[in-house]
Amino acid sequence: MCRSIKTLRPPAIPDEATEEEMRAAALQYVRKVSGFRAPAAHNEEVFDRAVAEIAEATRRLLDGLEVRGAARA
């Protein structure tokens, strides 16, 4: 697991994760999987699309999780 990706659900963080936090986690994941810190110009579109898709999947995941003992908003 990429060590710079942090847990984005309570109680690990006090409030709901922000879009910025989800995008940062998605970016770290794509960097780790692709092996590139920044894509070459010819890979930039697919790299950015992957970050956006993973950030969206992260949002859906966090929105759907039910954490035992936590009040749902």
Fold and architecture overview:
With 73 residues, the chain is mainly alpha-helical. It has a domain at 19-64. 51% of the residues lie in helices and 0% in strands. The protein contains 2 helices and no strands. The chain has helices at residues 19-34, 44-64. Helix 1 packs across helix 2 (44-64). The radius of gyration is 14 Å and the shape is elongated. The model has no long low-confidence stretch (mean pLDDT 89).
Task: List segments where confidence is low: pLDDT < 50 over at least 5 consecutive residues.
Answer: none
Q: Count the E strands.
A: 0
Q: Which percent bin holds the helix content?
A: 40-55%
Helix/strand class: mainly alpha
Secondary-structure element sequence? Answer: HH
